[in-house]
Amino acid sequence: MSFKAAAVQMCSGVDPVKNAAAMARLVREAVAQGATYVQTPEMTGMLQRDRTAARAVLADETHDVIVRTGSELARELGIHMHVGSTAIALADGKIANRGFLFGPDGKILNRYDKIHMFDVDLDNGESWRESAAYTAGSEARVLSLPFAEMGFAICYDVRFPALFRAQAVAGAEVMTVPAAFTKQTGEAHWEILLRARAIENGVFVIAAAQAGRHENGRHEDGRETFGHSMIVDPWGTVLASAGATGEAVIIAEIDPAAVKAAHDKIPNLRNGREFSVEKIAGAVAGGVAA
Questions:
Q1: Are 46 and 15 a contacting pair, CB within 8 Å?
Q2: Which of 248, 197, 243 is nearest to 41 (CA)?
Q3: What letter would DSSP give residue 159?
Q4: Catalytic residue numbers?
Q5: Per-residue pLDDT at 218
């Protein structure tokens, strides 16, 4: 059964209440255009470089304004509402980068905690250590929905194809990749990674992104996200995309029958084989390895 999917592009700031209001406005716009599944970006609720300031406004899942607003929107609009992720305070003092999928009754159908932590040093001097504050997830899930089998990932997870392959083998037809990609890495790899995950698994990929420069409460803090939210089909065709900055709503028709068609043409999921890897020496003294 085909359905209309929307990816909502945002430029979240440091105030979760303001971000919740922006999310609600954009989700309503998506539904007005016919979307029945709506996805928001990674860290919908807050992008805040100052971790002390961030902790001061974080809430647990029960009291989080983004979780509450997502549930209310799903119930009011009768949609499947996917909060790509938001920061959730955990009992041990750390944080979960957690996505939520709400059903049309407003109840949580799925939670997904980002598995791969963005611990990198970039050429432009940016340094990120997500593992210093966030607790990594350890469980991937494929959720059976009335319109498709859906898999979940968040941002940096897209660089780990084994996660997507495991979900595809488990039957996923649609993969979700809400993100807050940096401008530098996005320019280099965002589109090619999304299209690669779609092509190699024969699935749709829906990726709502953060876009533009983000403020820290007083002024811009220099963080710039890449934007370019995308919806990609199983053949790697970009069905819809947004620009580099600012809010946007993109929509595409998703037909799971296209997944079967792609698998019939390129049956690599069925043709995969187990294999071992042996590391051997190259050159050896007096000649080459046999």
A1: yes
A2: 248
A3: G
A4: 42, 114, 155
A5: 55
**C-alpha angle with apex 12: 8 to 16, nearest 5 degrees?**
110
At which residue do the structure tokens 């020496």 appear?
A: 281
Quote the CATH superfamily of domain 3-264: Carbon-nitrogen hydrolase (3.60.110.10)
| Structural domain spans, the chain | 3-264
Q: Percentage of residues in the chain with pLDDT exceeding 90? A: 79
**Which residue reads 């997830």 in tokens?**
137
**pLDDT at res. 216:** 64
Counting residues of the chain whose pLDDT is more than 70, the rounded percentage is 91
Q: Alpha helix locations (H) across the chain?
A: 16-32, 51-57, 65-77, 161-169, 183-201, 257-265, 268-271
236 sits in the region (left: phi over 0; alpha: psi -120 to 50; else beta) called left
Q: Where are the alpha helices (DSSP H) in 82-182?
A: 161-169
The pTM (predicted TM-score) of the whole model is 0.92
Tens digits of residue pLDDT in 227-258: 999 999 999 999 999 999 899 999 999 999 99
User: Could you read off the pLDDT of 267-281 as tens digits, one per residue?
Assistant: 999 999 999 999 999
Residue from 147, 161, 62, 151 nearest 108 by CA:
62
List the structure tokens of 212. 């533009």
Helix orientation angle between 16-32 and 65-77, rounded to the nearest 10 degrees: 20
